[in-house]
UniProtKB/TrEMBL annotation:
Gene3D superfamilies noted in UniProt: alpha/beta hydrolase (3.40.50.1820)
Keywords attached to this entry: Hydrolase
Protein name (Swiss-Prot/TrEMBL): Alpha/beta fold hydrolase
Organism of provenance: Devosia albogilva
Any one Pfam family match given in the protein's UniProt record, by short name: Abhydrolase_6
Segments forming a coiled coil: none
SUPFAM superfamilies (alphabetical): alpha/beta-Hydrolases (SSF53474)
Entry keyword annotation includes Zinc: no
PANTHER family named in the record: AB HYDROLASE SUPERFAMILY PROTEIN YCLE (PTHR43798:SF31), MONOACYLGLYCEROL LIPASE (PTHR43798)
Database matches in InterPro entries: AB_hydrolase_1, AB_hydrolase_fold, AB_hydrolase_sf, Epox_hydrolase-like
Length: 278
């Protein structure tokens, strides 16, 4: 696997992570249906470009182990930065990882150099689905209620990897196997019932002045595409890109494209970021 593994003990948890390269830090925050492995290609690209790439499994995912105790993903991220003696970092997040990056930027603006948000969650954001999308959500709910773990994993692969309006199996091969393994590990872990929910961020996104690259796949949920458009209009220093033919996890579906956009953004940050201001 790309990078050097590390472990970080926080209360009753041991966070498992990877780091690669030297330079200014870029911390990668995975989606809620993945783990740190969704970012391996981006970590390698960032490290080769002279950045210190760090990714970790949050509680409830991947190789991280955690007791069912009160916790905050925000506090865990802050503890990770402190453990690496990092004052400020670029945060790259997909889906729930993007929501965490936004929450962190609102709470600790001085510790956030830049944001890359992919199909991002936003704490407190509205959610609506089309009739077509609702059908796959119902299939997901049915598999969950029946306790069909394998079925749930397959439905979520269709939902998030292929895209809710796409043909099931659109993305195959090693990429699909990786998704099923990452999401399967998360589904199988014991539920953590004491997470501290961060405050509403949806009404405050306009306060985030940090240089931000927004990405969304055009095969993703319609609500996430609409959210992407809202953020691009509301965040004062955001540059927005729609990825054609990609769904919710473009870092593994179209890694070369995501890498090129990420490196362009990181290069702009080093140069002052003017080309990413609208």
């Amino acid at each position: 696997m790309v990078g050097d593994p590390f472990e970080l003990e926080i209360d009753g948890a041991v966070l498992a992570g990877l780091e690669l390269g030297e330079g200014l830090p870029v911390v990668f925050l995975h989606a809620g249906v993945c783990d740190k492995r969704m970012w391996l290609s981006q970590m390698e690209a960032a490290a080769e470009a002279g950045w210190h790439a760090i990714a970790y499994d949050r509680r409830g995912y991947g190789e991280t182990e955690s007791a069912d105790e009160p916790f905050s993903h925000l506090d865990d991220l802050e503890a990770l930065l402190d453990a690496f003696d990092i004052h400020a970092a670029v945060l790259v997040g997909c889906s729930m990882g993007g929501g965490l990056a936004l929450d962190f930027a609102l709470k600790h603006p001085g510790r956030t150099i830049g944001l890359v948000l992919v199909g991002t969650s936003v704490t407190g954001a509205p959610w609506s689905t089309t009739e077509e999308e609702r059908a796959i959500e119902m299939a997901e709910e049915d598999a969950w209620e029946r306790g069909d773990i394998d079925g749930l994993n397959r439905v979520q692969a269709h939902e998030w990897l292929d895209g809710p309006r796409a043909q099931s199996g659109r993305v195959g091969g090693a990429v699909r196997e990786l998704f099923l393994d990452m999401n399967g590990k998360a589904i199988a872990k014991p539920q953590l019932t004491q997470e501290e929910v961060p405050p509403d961020a949806w009404r405050r996104v306009g306060e985030v002045n940090t240089p931000t690259l927004l990405m969304v796949g055009d095969e993703d949920f319609s609500a996430l595409i609409e959210r992407h458009e809202h953020l691009s209009e509301t965040m004062p220093n955001a540059f927005a890109v729609v990825l054609e033919g990609a769904a919710h996890i473009p870092s593994i579906e179209q890694p070369e494209l995501v890498n090129s956009l990420l490196l362009e953004f990181l290069d702009a940050l080093e140069g002052g970021g003017d080309e990413f201001e609208e």
